[in-house]
Amino acid sequence: MDHLGRPIALDAGAQLYTVLEVCRAFERIFKEHLDGGRPGGDRIYGVFDNQLPAALKKLPFDRHLSVQNVRRVVSEADGYQPHLIAPEQGYRRLIEGALNYFRGPAEASVDAVHFVLKELVRKSIGETQELKRFPTLQADLAAAANEALERFRDESKKTAVRLVDMESSYLTVDFFRKLPQEVENKGGNPQAPVTDRYGEGHFRRIGSNVSSYIGMVSDTLKNTIPKAVVFCQVKEAKQSLLTRFYTQLGKKEGKQLLQLLDEDPALMERRQQCAKRLELYKAARDEIDSVSWTR
């Protein structure tokens, strides 16, 4: 009978307690999926360890930093008067254009983790035995959990994209301050003719410098994007998945709570049948005991 559940109490306080007890059972199972007690949470690590690095490697930097594109961007940035020493505006435009490519993998990581969390919610609901009694509560809880995950995803996406924008808004100057010295150490000739400075080798070197900088940023984002996703999505899901739902429950009256505890008719009928059989069993046991004592 305990497995089938006890009859619903008529008192509103007891009904609220029953609803909260069922919700906590669901949350406990959901956290076990995330923390490793149950399978599924490891897929989030797979997003960071496999999917994100693979997406970063596929970004079309080779095309963006080709000699033809570098020449075009630098020439457009110079305007009518070519740069004197280093095409700073050209560098900035090339870097900003390359950094925009990181938005895609950042948002894709957020969406991938969101999908995993939704799957874990679905699994957790199916594994919560107490919820099977109450289809209405099950549906409302699922809707509340998914709505919360949507909010967490939106905030996570803003944060992840903000990390990319931060890299665009302020470049690491020290990286480029070392470049002229490195060129000289490699035997570069600052007195080279102007035609050489604006030839293919010049633009190829610019592309190489930008590529090195983008590689440094890629390594940084490979570490910071997972931190943002975990902080904004996974941690929030563990701590406050049903916070708004609990607030709404506190405002419900007895009739509304009773609607949430609308049991599955088949389960109610089965419990009634089991209760009748249990009564028959007890009556038979008492009768057998009485006959035994009379002897």
Automatic annotation (TrEMBL):
Pull one GO CC term from this UniProt entry: phragmoplast
Keyword annotations from UniProtKB, A to Z: Cell cycle, Cell division, Motor protein
Record's subcellular location: Cytoplasm, Cytoskeleton, Phragmoplast
Quote the Gene3D superfamilies the UniProt record gives: Dynamin, middle domain (1.20.120.1240)
Give the matching InterPro entries.
Dynamin, Dynamin_stalk, GED, GED_dom
Q: Which GO terms describe its molecular function?
A: GTP binding; GTPase activity; microtubule binding
The transmembrane segments are none
What is the protein name stated in its UniProt record?
Answer: GED domain-containing protein
Species this protein is from = Gossypium lobatum
